[in-house]
Amino acid sequence: MIPIGITTAGHWVLQGNDADRLSIHDGVLPSVDRNAPEVALNVDPTAADLMIHQPNQVPESLGRVDVVFPVLHGPWGEDGTIQGLLEMAGVPYVGSGVLGSALAMDKGFMKAIFEQAGLAVTPYEVITDAQWRLDREASLLRVRNLCEVVFVKPARAGSSNGITKVCDPGLLEAAIEAARIHDPKVIVEAEILDAREIECGVIVDGAPKASRCAEIIVRSGHEFYDFEAKYLDDSAELVVPADLSPGLESQVQALAIRAFESLACEGLARVDFFVTGAGEVVVNEINTMPGFTPISMFPRMWAASGLDYPALIDHLVRDALKRGTGLR
């Protein structure tokens, strides 16, 4: 196994095998060693080897790449971009392909496809860059008519970056501008009152298979399950498995598989839901590369389903090798 980090400038660098250095300690995220040797993937499918580039030296091959586990969130890593690179190189990889990754990354297209598949979604409006620049007032009018309380999000960002909960219509414009720092395309979603946040994992074992469900309970200090609550502190309680009736859990699991299949996802995903007090199950979104930190929900849901962390990783790698690359 060769861990590779990607710098903010886009350089691929070797990171060594010290797993502890890649862990989160005291709320501090690990950083990439920018001074490490640079590497590059040879995209010639007949070679597909990893090349190391040292200053004033001839590039050296570290050998052919068997499989890649792209543990990356957000643009360039989860949106079909790196998946396209690996397809060109003929290198198998864990997770969804170009199409599934791209569709799941764009919350506007994702929700439109969910609706076509007959899945209930939160009421929403999409504001493109052109719409915002050419007629800002028309865009604001559309989102003001959604609901008293809304969530403003970048349409194609990950890890809850750039999200604002807006309770005052007068603050909508500022929230949209804040989201546009991350993505010129913005989605605004209506709040669902008194809903439980339920998640379900999906992997492929011949056919898509759903895990036990889990629930997120956000405690005081956070208005919603934001970046800090996800990665840096313990302000959210993760209940695994969720306290659901057998019938309701089966319904959520079936809907998770439908959502997974509707976007042509592969390998793995985590599907997020809202369950209302009336028992309606609403799909919030899908993540094609869910978190794998010690406090992440995805591995915990599969552990509760009888598949521990090492077995889960092994299964995902074997699935990637079996699936291969190219049209399928």
UniProtKB/TrEMBL annotation:
Pfam families: Dala_Dala_lig_C (PF07478), Dala_Dala_lig_N (PF01820). Its cofactor is Mn(2+); Mg(2+). SUPFAM superfamilies: Glutathione synthetase ATP-binding domain-like (SSF56059), PreATP-grasp domain (SSF52440). InterPro entries: ATP-grasp, ATP_grasp_subdomain_1, D-Ala_lig_Van_CS, D_ala_D_ala, Dala_Dala_lig_C, Dala_Dala_lig_N, PreATP-grasp_dom_sf. GO terms for cellular component: cytosol. Keywords: ATP-binding, Cell shape, Cell wall biogenesis/degradation, Ligase, Magnesium, Manganese, Metal-binding, Nucleotide-binding, Peptidoglycan synthesis. GO terms for biological process: cell wall organization; peptidoglycan biosynthetic process; regulation of cell shape. One of its GO terms (molecular function) is metal ion binding. Belongs to the D-alanine--D-alanine ligase family. This is Unannotated protein.
